Amino acid sequence: MTKFAAKSVNTKIPVQLNENEFEQFILPYLSMPIRGPEYKIGYWKVFNYILKFLYPGMQCKQLPIEKNANGDPEIHHTVIFKQYGK
What we know:
- The protein has about 90 residues and is mainly α.
- It has a domain at about 40-85.
- The chain contains three helices and no strands.
- It has helices at about 20-25, 45-55, 75-85.
- It is extended, with a radius of gyration of 17 Å.
- The mean pLDDT is about 85.
């Protein structure tokens, strides 16, 4: 009689992190830029956009980018792609 291996516990890949989770688990391991402007929307939101870009396998142009108070996108999709490439 053959025995099957025990099922492994699958954990889901996070698709979005809040700011506290990002600062606790991700930010300490990132190399931060020495010069240049910081993102107005925060590094954690850019990281969340990269997760949204990777998880479903969509193109950067198709990302659902939130609008700011003026109705403009809060970040351009090419910025997300450039940060992903670093």
